Each structure stands twice: as structure tokens, then as C-alpha cells.
Amino acid sequence: MIGARASAVARKEFRQIARDGRTLFILLFIPVFFLLLFGYALSWDIRGVRLAVDDRDRTVDSRALVSAFVQSEYFTLANTIQSDEHLTRLMDTNAIRAALVIPSGYARDLTRGERVPVQVLLNGDNANTATTVMGYVNAVIEAESARRLSVASGGATVPVPILVEPRIWYNPQLRSALFLVPGLIAYIAMITAVISTSLSIVREKERGTIEQVRMAPLNAVSFIIGKTLPYLLISLVAELAIVGAAMWLFDLPMRGSWGVLLLALTLYLVGALGLGLLISSIADSQQVAFQVAMLASLLPTLLLSGFIFPIASMPQPLQTVTRIVPARYFLVALRGVMLKGSSLATIQDQLIALTVYAAAMIGLASIRLRRQWH
Question: Nearest to residue 81, comparing CAs of 98, 65, 64?
Fold first, then answer.
């Protein structure tokens, strides 16, 4: 009897699920989506590391060393260094992740059987990436040294001919805190800002006060901006307090301008608040708004921003998706200002992207609300 009743309930539930396309879609698609997302995004491997070369020897042997780097699966020749200022600009703008400096006399010293040091400069703003790249450098150098290694008379081996002299920029000790704490700042700012505004409009819907707002002499854009300003001021105070706490507790440096940092933070928060308002204008309940806000802010910021997993290691389609994640641009700007002392001109591309995102979110929220009011 119990089995027959349970079977009847199960048949009814199957029919309801079949009629509810949304539930069926979530049950079948979401697991595959998460598998693909986590499977491709969660990777410490890096390929195509952008490398600049300063070949001061310009011989067949020095070009062979450069070729060993380029022909490996790890590095891509991105630039040729013209001067120290050029190298600094490439590093500051993240145009390269590493630089190889081959000294003059490289080929001559190798011919004499002497050990030759080559300098490798690494961008240390991402400690995990820098450590991985240093491992790649050592692998290439060891392979090139082994190719040149010869056996001397009497069976004695010649010492390894090529030595690596690494130098880490911006984070010489490769402290993980200098990499993780800026990411945490971006992560916390996005989640708190999106959730705070995602509940604001839907709360008025549930209380019925949205009808009073509709009758007031107020357009959708003014309403959205008015909703944003209080949360923006509160979020700015909170995030600046977090930055100050990070500097005090984790020795996070501040090598750039506070004004540039405040501008980047403001644009980032406006975009996050706009996303929350867009979600709030769509959702019908605070529970739904909270769930959508968590999904829209947590996963992209954690997985697709370069916070933990390098974007360069992701497949090209996923790298394209990361271009609509605001935390990607804010992290570059934040780490640039705090760790590198980047100027406004250096991070202007990131600021432009954040401005476009903020305008798009505020605009979409206003359009959505205007359609509801009419």
C-alpha cells in the first residue's frame, strides 16, 4: 500500500517537473555548467606567458637562448626591451609578465667554458603566477644548459653553464598577502554592494510602497540614482576602512595616489550597485533577489576575475567571458595603484571599462524600472 502511494506521488512529481521547464533546466543544465566552469577556470597552469627580451649580446648563442624560451609551451615573445623606461612601462601596464636580460659577452663566456648569469625579471603582483613562471624559467634554462653540457676529459662534467639571477618586481618576498588581500577587497566590495541594493526595490514591492513612488513626480533614472547614492557613500566608507585595515594588519603598501584609488573604487561600486538594482527590478521577492545577487556577484568575482586563477590559463571562450566581469579591471587597477604606484594614465583602460560597466548597469536598471512603471 505504501509503495503504491509513493509511486503515485512520484508519478505526479515527474509530471510537474516535466511541465516546469525552469526546474528541469536547472536540474539538467546547472551541474554541467558548473563542471565546465570549474573544470576550465580552476587551473594553476599558465601558458603563453608574455615575455620581453633584452639581448645585449646579439649572437647566435643568445638568439638560441631566446628561441628556447619561445619554442617552449610556456612563453610568448611579446616585446623587445628598448630601455629601462620601456621595461618599467611594460611591467606597470601588465604588458609582460617576465623579462629576459642576456648580458654582453654571453657567447664568449660560454665558449670559454665559464658559467654565464642571465637575469630574469618577474612581475610579482600575482605571487602565485610569479612562482609558477619562475619554475618555467628554471625548466627552460636547465634544458638549454643540458644541451650545452659536455663531458670533460677524465669523465668530469662541466658545471651548469647558464645561471639564473631572478629579480621580483613589486613583491620581492612573493608574499601571498600582497596578492590575496587586494582580491579580497574586490570580492567583499562586489558581494556587499550587489546584495545591499538587490533587496532595496523588491523590498518596496513587497511592502507596497513602490506604488506610491510610481505616483510621485519622479522618473526612473532619478529614482535609481537616489537609491544608489546612500549605498555608494556607505560602501565607500566601508571599503576605505577595509583598505586601511589591510594596510595595518597585512602591511599592504600604498605606493600610488589615494585619489586614483578612490576614483577606481567609486566606479567599481557604482557598477556593483547598479547590478544589484537591476536584479532588484527583476526579482519578485527578497529571497529570489538574494539568491540571484549571490550567484551574479560571487562566482564571476571569485573565478573569472583573476583573483585566484590566472585568466591566461583559461580557454579563449572563457577569457572572452571575463571581459564583462568588472572585478577583472578593478583588480588590475587596485593592484597597480597599491603595489606599483600606477598613475591615472597607466590604468586608464581599466577605468574606462569600469565606467562603461557602471553606465550600462545603471542604464539597464532604469530602463527595466521605466517599463514596469508604464
Answer: 98
Q: What is the mean pLDDT of the chain?
A: 83
* The pLDDT of residue 131 is above 70: yes
Distance, first Cα to last Cα, the chain: 55
Better pLDDT: 273 or 34? 273
Q: What is the mean pLDDT of residues 232-241?
A: 91
Model pTM score: 0.81
| Domains located in the chain, CATH noted | 49-169 (3.40.1710.10), 176-373 (no CATH)
Q: What is the largest CA-CA distance in the chain?
A: 98
Q: What is the pLDDT of residue 153?
A: 38
Q: Give the separation between CA 353 and CA 368, rounded to whole angstroms.
A: 22
For 20, residues 6+ apart whose C-beta sits below 8 A from its C-beta are none
More confident residue, 365 or 1: 365
Torsion sign, CA atoms 36, 39, 44, 46: negative
Amino acid letter at 310? Answer: P
- 52 has a pLDDT exceeding 50: yes
